[in-house]
Amino acid sequence: MMSAMKHRLLLAAGLVLMPMPPARAQFYDLDGAYRCLTAPDPACEKELRDQPRPASPASPSGNGPTLEQVVAKVRDKTLGPREVQFLEQHAAANEQRAVEVLAWCKLNGLGTPADAVAAYWLYRQAARLGVANARRNQTAVFETRLTPEERQQVLVQENAR
């Protein structure tokens, strides 16, 4: 009889060796519609405006940017170290939207070097916090953005938890 650990490792090895589906276009942006970042149109903009927005937390010091200001810089692709630090602080405090936005930035290298593995873990954190589409995004990162070695790394870490 195989132990549970051997079973998990065999499953992980099987997942890594499975042929991967063809890469898909990114389907997700900060508000759930990647198309709005790449090709905004009036209908898209209206959809984003009509979505309910959570309260926008300010910087812990009170004199920094708000989350909405940081998101605007992400959309404009003008994110700097100050805004990345803001996102990291708020993500560490498990603020849903900050975790989600930081995952997006890490995945796409906005204001920080691209790091698909970090994005994978941040989307996992976002899913645990109840962020819509976060689990799907984590899966998409796994399937389309991680190298086989990175997939193996995250599977081993997932099994260790």
Describe this structure in words.
The chain contains 9 helices and no strands. It has 161 residues and is mainly α. It has a domain at 58-160. The radius of gyration is 17 Å and the shape is globular.
What are the salient characteristics of this protein?
161 residues; mainly alpha
How many helices?
Answer: 9
Could you name the ranges where pLDDT drops below 50 across 5 or more consecutive residues? 15-38, 51-56
Instruction: Write down the overall mean pLDDT.
Output: 76
Q: Calculate Rg over CA atoms.
A: 17 Å
Biggest β-sheet, characterized?
A: none
β-sheet strand percentage: under 5%
The secondary-structure class comes to mainly alpha
The secondary-structure element order is HHHHHHHHH
What percent of the residues sit in helical stretches (DSSP H or I)? 55-70%
